[in-house]
Each structure stands twice: as structure tokens, then as C-alpha cells.
Amino acid sequence: MPTEIEIKVKVEEHEGVRGRLREVGAERVGTVLETNRIFDSGDGSLHRAGKALRVRSSVDVETKNAAHVMTFKGPRKPGPLKVREELEVEVEDGEKAAAILRAMGYVVTLAFEKRRESWRLEPCKIELDELPHLGCFVEIEGPDERVILATRRELGLYTRPSITEAYVGLLMDELRSRGRREREIRF
User: Fold this and answer.
1) How many CB atoms lie within 10 A of CB 81?
2) Which of 82, 163, 165, 172 has a beta carbon 3.0–4.6 Å from 8's, enabling a disulfide?
3) What is the pLDDT of residue 28?
């Protein structure tokens, strides 16, 4: 099964990391505005099992082209990095994919926007993410822990603590701490 292996760190802003990416010869891929819809059963059984079901729609900020992906994520494996099974399929229409999931009894438990600037520093993908309420993060995804940690060091992020919690959990915690009940988070 395909496995996602990544590390996430919180940063105050992206400009310093962006500059470092340029210095080390990383390739800028592009920037998108994502809308992520997280689905669960009515009783929350996916969340309780550490699983996730998502429909993500991404719009390229320059070309305005849209892409849609349906994703299943398995439970997180123990360790310092976020490691979990990830199955993805591109879909032609994000709304129809969401309608299929709703027809199967799943409900949207959270929908949120995210700005994502993508870079490649072989063999890793580096994402500069910004989320409402949470701020700026850097995600480094790669083939194994050694390579990811080496890339983290190369980018000057080795002193920052890693975050293994998914954005969904971070957003839900933030909303709870503010006493807010909305489940649609936008810029």
C-alpha cells in the first residue's frame, strides 16, 4: 500500500524558508488554493479509528486550472514522523465525488481552505502551507525518515519541533479552544 511519510513544522512566515529553498536549488512547482472536505460516518467511526476520507479541490492561482483528488488515509503509525497509508485517486469532478460519499452515508465534518506553495528538492516535496486560524507551516514529504530529516536540516528547520497532528485535528482543537462551532473555515 502507498505510504505517506512527512514532517510538519510551524513557522512565523514563509519568506525565510522560500529564500533557503532557492539557495539550495529547489524547484518551485506552483501555488494553489485548496478546499478540503473531510468526510466521516454519522457516528464518527473513521475519526475514532484514526482514518480520514477527503475530497480536495485545488485551483492553481496563476492558470486557474482546477484538480480534484479523493483520498483515504489510514491510522498514523507510531514514531517521530507522520507515517500513514494513503490512497488517492484523481477525480474529474470534486462535487460529484462528494455527492457519491454523501449518498453512501458520509457527512462533511470539516471543510477548510489552505494556500499551498509547492517546491521540489529531490527526492522530497516541500509544501509551504497557510491556513486560516493556524498560520504558516512547512511540510516535507519524502521516501524515508533519514532523507526527510536531512532535508529539514538543510532548510534550517531542525530546531523547530515537528508536528504530527493533521491540519484537521489542529483546526478542530483551535475551534474548540475558541468556543466556535463552525465547520467551514475560509480565508
Assistant:
1) 21
2) 163
3) 98
